[in-house]
Amino acid sequence: MEKVVAGVIGAGRIGKLHINNLKTNQNVRLKMVSELFADDLQEWFKDSGVEEITKDYQDIFEDEDINTVFICSPTSTHADLIKLAASYKKHVFCEKPISFNDEETLEAYEQIKEAGVKFQVGFNRRFDKNFQEMQSRVENRKVGDVHVLKITSRDPKPPHLDYIETSGGLFMDMSIHDFDMARYLVGSEVVEVYAKGAAIVNPEIGEMEDIDTAVITLTFDNGALGVIDNSREAVYGYDQRIEVFGNGGAIVADNETATNLKYYHSNTVEIDQPLHFFLERYNESFIRETQEFVDSILNDTETKVVFKDGIMAQRIAMAAKQSNDSGKPVKVNHEIG
Amino acid sequence: MEKVVAGVIGAGRIGKLHINNLKTNQNVRLKMVSELFADDLQEWFKDSGVEEITKDYQDIFEDEDINTVFICSPTSTHADLIKLAASYKKHVFCEKPISFNDEETLEAYEQIKEAGVKFQVGFNRRFDKNFQEMQSRVENRKVGDVHVLKITSRDPKPPHLDYIETSGGLFMDMSIHDFDMARYLVGSEVVEVYAKGAAIVNPEIGEMEDIDTAVITLTFDNGALGVIDNSREAVYGYDQRIEVFGNGGAIVADNETATNLKYYHSNTVEIDQPLHFFLERYNESFIRETQEFVDSILNDTETKVVFKDGIMAQRIAMAAKQSNDSGKPVKVNHEIG
Amino acid sequence: MEKVVAGVIGAGRIGKLHINNLKTNQNVRLKMVSELFADDLQEWFKDSGVEEITKDYQDIFEDEDINTVFICSPTSTHADLIKLAASYKKHVFCEKPISFNDEETLEAYEQIKEAGVKFQVGFNRRFDKNFQEMQSRVENRKVGDVHVLKITSRDPKPPHLDYIETSGGLFMDMSIHDFDMARYLVGSEVVEVYAKGAAIVNPEIGEMEDIDTAVITLTFDNGALGVIDNSREAVYGYDQRIEVFGNGGAIVADNETATNLKYYHSNTVEIDQPLHFFLERYNESFIRETQEFVDSILNDTETKVVFKDGIMAQRIAMAAKQSNDSGKPVKVNHEIG
Amino acid sequence: MEKVVAGVIGAGRIGKLHINNLKTNQNVRLKMVSELFADDLQEWFKDSGVEEITKDYQDIFEDEDINTVFICSPTSTHADLIKLAASYKKHVFCEKPISFNDEETLEAYEQIKEAGVKFQVGFNRRFDKNFQEMQSRVENRKVGDVHVLKITSRDPKPPHLDYIETSGGLFMDMSIHDFDMARYLVGSEVVEVYAKGAAIVNPEIGEMEDIDTAVITLTFDNGALGVIDNSREAVYGYDQRIEVFGNGGAIVADNETATNLKYYHSNTVEIDQPLHFFLERYNESFIRETQEFVDSILNDTETKVVFKDGIMAQRIAMAAKQSNDSGKPVKVNHEIG
Prior knowledge:
- Helices cover 38% and strands 24% of the residues of chain A.
- Chain A has twelve helices and 15 strands.
- Chain A has a seven-stranded mixed β-sheet. In chain A, strands 3-2-1-4-5-6 form a six-stranded parallel β-sheet, with helices on both faces. The first copy, chain A, has a two-stranded antiparallel sheet with strand order 13-14.
- In chain A, strand 5, helix 5 (102-115) and strand 6 form a beta-alpha-beta unit.
- In chain A, helix 6 packs across helix 8 and helix 8 (170-186) crosses helix 12 (307-326).
């Protein structure tokens, strides 16, 4: 293929982000965006570099130039859109999670497999330079056998309550990135989850039967253990730290900051807070994510985050929810089909 | 009281450590040491600053000058020795854990209470300058309400297998320090434990029905969550890091190192490993631990680590073991008597 | 002006760098490049995004579309090209140093002033995020009155000896960036220089009457002192650290690294080396440098690095050389015209 | 010798410091202290562990038990007291500087040499764990040939003006420690000094013809260059950093802090300031300094800071003053006798 001709479904926060990144990619022609609330986007549209804007995603599927769709609409629509894309033989980039339901996801998976198109899930953190280097060192056995994986992943602020309502819950919305990181870094499947959650940032979140704080224990197929701690609110910024520990050593990734300045004054010594928002923190990883997806289409190579990665992260999230609800550890099946 | 006149029971590694620290304390007269294998210690005894050495601990109890005993013998003997000390009205410093058995420990507790003597458990880490400052800031609400406590606690090397046999297991021998730290730093009782262990450092440890790696989830009475990860072997040194996270911020304590040098050369940049052994790492905290115990006797103030601290750490360790055995979270009772 | 139409004179390492950055700038049309050795560049030219390539820079001046020239040719040609640009009323971006000769530089300055075109010198480090934030804090008096400025600036490797021959010497070629940083950060003119150099990295550099190592003391008009230490070879990478110290505190900028990983293993703990090459280290600052220059043309605002900045850095470099040759401190005149 | 029997001359701040350290040394009997203002010290004397206190230092010299004197009186008295000690064949520990006058110092040196007694100058920083390890690595060629030495040495606050009056000036009082460090770390003599000073912390210091801020360039016999920057006031604490850079790499020593805690909150991230006072910062080095001096007497080995070290640091200080006064670099003679 000479060029990716792209259609983007959904122009909310994440859709706009991908649109911005796609328009600087010289291998991409950004042809069409569909957005239900397209009327509100007229102003933005002018400078967006997008050729056409529509309210009906069907226009994207029926456009013969478009060979690749970016699914950035609400999660509840993902599985159907993936199937539609498969039927139109278009390559698919789909935001996380694929769906809230294992069967639906597996159906979509089957159709993608059959259609033989490329597929990538939006686990952008795999493209972060720190975590990528960490993964590569782990793979090269710099820490020997992995014994313990530790992820601290905290948002700077809880989302609006109405977002939370449709989010699928903390595990499916937020921890799912960490579940993917866990599999990516350890290189082994998660076979059991125990999750302990609490609604202590904001009790209203608890009233919605969701949680805002969690400690999650993972057991990997290779015998390693993992622990993730999540919070919806770290007042000092977006806290994203990972550590892999094994019988040969440990590798620790710290937060990224805007500058490396140290400021000594008469009261204390100050250093920068972690970058405050996921768009800043993972800016480069979002760019690389679409670049590498585009490259894998153009060069006909496997994408860096395949369908199974989406399925497994979602299953771990469901198991975590079940564990938190039941108060017991829950097994995770990693066989597909 | 003008001076502490001390008798030390047990002159193994930890007993010798306390003897060394006591002899530099100007408020202490170190009168007698009892050690079953006293014959092997003749050489050491000469330079030890100890006046008398005996094979029979009864000599210590019957010595009327001695007003304080340091119990550094195997755990199985602690409870009886504490009761004996109470009956002789001597103050007691007892190494951790108090015993492997809640009833036994409670009996000893009752007798100490009745005797009205001072009692301190050997949770030396409470006297570490980093953790002490951390506790003080948490108490002063520098992180607001605590939401998550994280402890990473890894030994540089597993002990000999015959030590492991009588150790009471990883939770009772090693994690018990972390359980105490958890209560100390969060300032709230642990009400539930879920522990997931593995024997992946050395399978022989597994054959002894012990583990060498663990991830432990704690639930505190105030709603906070905690997580401890333990390993018997960190090849790069004694890894001791703690973090307290709350709705007002977070405080992180890193490892201590021998120097703060950074060495830049053509291959990489090197910094110091964590101090390698607990005797180096906690050297100062061991010194302060006995100093403050001695001061609390001389000034008739409460000790910094009271009997209940010993009871609770031990109960959490027992709950952790039960959880790991059963695969389920286990409640911890924090009522005494 | 609607769009900058650019011509680039010289397509060596630095010329190519600017060409690459200009072609991603949506406000720039990169029309022509002149390069004496254009024949060797046919391959590169294809992908360069440049419309025309010529051997004769006169073509650039005579092209009526081109409103802005980027002078990236050898230093000996700068002054004449600047004057030519002034006569053609084209805006000028000129690489550092402007020339090796104060009079020549002042002549060029007069003509630019008269022509009323924009002018910017290539002191890219002013656009580094760390140093920019440092400057802003100093300006906002976060360190109070500046007392001492410290710059450590070391190259990873000496250039080829034939480059050194025409470089103008260490002070004019390398330290000149630091002299500009000094003025930029302290916000006061340098009035005296004492330089002590040595040829200890490579004695052949000494045989060419140049040096490869230097310690330079600066005195600022406001009473502050400064010190720069330079080396042509830091085997661990490109070492670029700055510190501003005042009566209100200090701000320290450390090196940038590829990742923030810490790798603990059985021998040591490793962190990343400083980024190894100026193109990586200052990649973003080179991009911003041209962006802001382009913006200042489009918005008709003052450039961020004006002609006087070029003149002064050059005078300080000349004074440093004179000081090193004579063994005495040398005054620097900061009056122009 | 079995035991050092010590007399201390002068019980000001530094004298009391040594007295405190000596009394915890089991190889030392602290017999007598002489202090002109002994009457004011009655209260302190009670708890000092000193056997006798006198107003007349002659009592110390005439006491036949005393085999070692610690000279902690004002600098103007040092040389005479050293000569007296030599004539009484007593070992000498002398605070820095030995004197303000090269001839006087050399006379004292000759008499010590003739008497064959041990002598140590009070350059305590040589006993700091960071700098000691740095020196050892430099000696083991971990940075190859040394090219540049950098010392930042700043006091937290200027001393009282009346102290400054008799201090000998910044170079002799404060930088002298850095001059000694320079020789110690580089392992080569300083052959030339250029010093640029300013009175910008407090103009009253300037009125006394002293300075409070300085940048000092050193040239070493082996071709290396050095730079020291001094300030009498760093509002954030006692700033003591050193770096050795060579053709094999660099080693950097940072400040010491009370804890290693990082505190993240909604405004910033805070770390500890450098330890605020020299007594805290160099507490351990002062202890080791006397310990090693005592050991060298008991084991009849060479002291770690010999007479020549005192002579040379003093000469460099005098050269620095001369350079600052004359505005020219000044040669330093390192031949003795």
